[in-house]
């Protein structure tokens, strides 16, 4: 298998490393380069960041920070119960329990390597393993709790570097008629929206259905259904079953997704060369927007100090000279500084009256934010976004 680079996004910090000072010493940086695998068509970071540098006791992201996500997970839990009636469920990457807590009436087990998060679900009386998902851990969990009817994992499998082992461990922990549900950002949507900010240290991969099928070809698992989601700017929920399980038919939408991706050229290196060219254009145009606003001496803040925005800020070299501060609802981020770009983050208390523009770090929650910020919009406040192309909204 051969990996070919197609985009260099420059030097980047650990996105989760929100800083306690604006002048940090020895901040860790790595080269963020994207590559294409000639055989599997898998799109990945060229070099991975050691997992312990990212997933540790200081992990900031709380899946329940947004109302949209809280509701989405509650609805999904209801749907899974109705459709599959599981007696047991395992979640890989259980974060703060936003999903798994809805299964307290059956056996529900969490796996979460960030101890600060695992402690939260343990307190909620959910048995949580504060470990990385490996084949060894799957064996240990099987021994103690048996195999599972449902394994669920949202925004986590794309973070795990060793994919062969990951899928082998999932297969090992599933009952014969069990299903595995994976949710991760969609490569097709990222390409269509030019949202290059899906690429950062944690996202070792951004999956296409094509690549997922290729990498699981030799395993005992196969895709039998796909749902498209709006989360994280466009995600896929992919349902896997064991190849030996004939209980579930393979939905026609699997073929449809594969053919849509083929039409787009997901399998071709040329597609990524064009993407890279457009990403560089997007950078130039975003910088121009910031420069022209600053020339007019207007005040810009950031809205949502997301991981995604870290890629944009560091790639486009947008710092305190452009953005005075970020507002964010996540308590662990407030009072800190954005990694690499060192912009202060304030606890969200509405947008102050002296703000003219707000850069949408959390562009994936645009609808939720627009509903909340009617006052800002009414008084002439404007949002800036870079998706699908840089502009003032
Ligand atoms: P998230 O969507 O998880 O993006 P990423 O994975 O790129 O970090 O993060 C959303 C962030 O935006 C989170 O820190 C909460 C914040 N946020 C607000 O501050 N206000 C809002 O209204 C919303 C919806 C999110």
How are the elements arranged and paired?
Elements: E1 3-12, E2 30-37, E3 43-45, H1 51-54, H2 67-84, E4 88-92, E5 107-111, H3 115-123, E6 127-129, H4 135-145, E7 148-154, H5 163-173, E8 174-185, H6 187-192, E9 205-206, H7 209-216, E10 221-229, E11 235-242, H8 252-264, H9 269-295, E12 300-303, H10 307-316, E13 326-328, E14 345-347, E15 357-360, H11 366-372, H12 374-378, E16 382-385, E17 391-392
Residues 61, 65-66, 304-308, 328-330, 333, 348, 362, 364-365, 368-369, 372 line the site of thymidine-5'-diphosphate (TYD).
**Remind me, CATH topology of the largest domain?**
Rossmann fold
Mean pLDDT: 97
- Strand residue percentage: 15-25%
CATH superfamily of the largest domain: Vaccinia Virus protein VP39
Q: How many domains?
A: 2
Q: Tell me the helix content.
A: 25-40%
Shape label: globular
Query: Largest sheet at a glance?
Result: 7 strands, mixed
CATH architecture assignment of the largest domain? 3-Layer(aba) Sandwich
List bound small molecules.
thymidine-5'-diphosphate
Number of strands: 17
Strand order of the largest sheet: 6-5-4-7-8-11-10
Low-confidence stretches: none
How would you spell out the order of helices and strands?
A: EEEHHEEHEHEHEHEHEEHHEHEEEHHEE
Number of helices, counting only DSSP H or I runs of 4 residues or more: 12
CATH class of the largest domain: Alpha Beta
